[in-house]
Amino acid sequence: KPAGDEILNGHNNSSPPRLIRAAFMNQFENLANVTSHYTSTGPEIYSQLDGKVDAFIMSAGTGGTLVGVGAYLKERFFENLQQKHRMLSQSPPRIILVDPPGSSLFNKIKFGVAYASQQSERKLRRHRYDTLAEGIGLDRVTANFGLGCEMISWEKKAFAKRINETSSDQNYEQLSNNSASTTLQSKIIDDALSISDQQAVHMAHHLLRHEGLFVGSSSAMNVAGAIIVASQMPERSNIVTVVCDGGQRHTSRFWNRDFVVNEWGLKWPGDNVTDPLEHDILHQLGIKV
């Protein structure tokens, strides 16, 4: 139900219904999600790095953060380009999705089809657990994520106007701005990386051991993706990601050695003390130096 609407609820047929107030945020399809990151998170990142953002990398749950931040960063780049401002970067920021096993969003970005091998005939399970990661990865394209797959004309406030077109029943008029069109076009999301559960586990343990950060599976995948992208970009590039979940909410699976090793069949970092590359995070992420 929409926010504030009253609904009747009863525990069973014998108990009388009671009047409660409920709010359904619908965060996957509600474009207030992506708009909030376009108007707040994106500007905050841009300001803190003085406009020099070379890449923004993260996973997608609803897709709101990735698309909203990516839209703002690209919009500012093309605005500066059109107005011939001094450019801190010579190319637009790369917006890259990090996707876990079993999610179809990687193939959506790479090949235009939302599909994963786990969804093939006779492999689709009733209760799907294709990854240790929780809260990220989907087998459908949400309204928020879908905006990142569309071609955008980067006129001033073009993305805000696109949101307004998509959500005519929502009040985003204050964001729109009529201006001359431009031939500069691109999609918000440029590329995608697939990060394995094993890589995420190694990354999480590395962050705890060397940075004192006790992170969850989403954050581990985000940082792993950022390191991989950083290894492919020029020195002194500014690579941004988001540490969005703490490890305290992942103690039953991701930070549970018995579950990771015996149920999931993965290696637990630190068990193989004779391997000199056991704690080499670049090796574990497949980065050659």
UniProtKB/TrEMBL annotation:
Name the InterPro entries on file.
Cys_Synth/Cystath_Beta-Synth, TrpB-like_PALP, TrpB-like_PALP_sf
**Residue ranges of domain Tryptophan synthase beta chain-like PALP in the record:** 22-139, 164-245
UniProt-listed PANTHER family: CYSTATHIONINE BETA-SYNTHASE
Top-rank lineage group of the source organism: Eukaryota
Matches recorded under Pfam families: PALP
State the species of origin: Skeletonema marinoi
Q: Which protein, by its recorded name, is this?
A: Tryptophan synthase beta chain-like PALP domain-containing protein
